[in-house]
Design goal:
Arc Repressor Mutant, subunit A, 2 domains, alpha+beta, Alpha-Beta Plaits, 5 helices, 152 residues
Length: 152
């Protein structure tokens, strides 16, 4: 296993904010030779620390201006109930994140849609149609001063 030193930390931070940076620029930014930098990146990929690269999408440009975090409580806490809920969330295009959490509710969702009308439709037709859903609480995002979702 590779050691996580300041170079690997700088590489990971740089790639999480700019995944398409050239190896030469990345090497310069972190203070390594291009060959040493490339070896480290490849090792981090091989170890599964870097699982992939993705584009950061602009919600405004996509007309997905309504962003909410939604907590969902289930009435049935069995494995089957969880798997059925997660399958529906996997297929729901409005849900960009689905986390099973510990606490007062079972799931925390990130939901992105065009408008409150679209959210109401998702709320009623998707969440409201599931028999195991016991509670739904919506937290509307007004502004995001920090968002580092380069981690998964």
């Amino acid at each position: 296993m590779t050691k996580f030193d300041r170079y690997n930390d700088l590489i990971l931070r740089s790639l999480s904010s700019e995944g398409r940076i050239s190896n030469t620029k990345l090497a310069d930014k972190v203070g390594l030779s291009p060959s040493a930098c490339l070896r480290r990146v490849q090792e981090l990929e091989d170890l599964g620390v870097i699982r992939g690269y993705r584009a950061i999408l602009d919600r405004d440009a996509l007309n997905r201006n309504f962003l909410a975090y939604v907590t969902v409580g289930l009435s049935n806490h069995g494995i089957k109930s969880h798997k059925e809920f997660e399958k529906v969330m996997q297929d729901a295009v409005q849900v960009t994140e689905c986390h099973n959490v510990a606490g007062a509710f079972e799931y925390l969702l990130r939901v992105e849609v065009k408008s409150t009308t679209d959210y109401k439709k998702f709320h009623a037709e998707v969440l409201g149609s599931l028999p195991q859903v016991n509670s739904i609480t919506t937290y509307l995002v007004m502004n995001s001063s920090k968002d580092e979702r380069g981690y998964c």
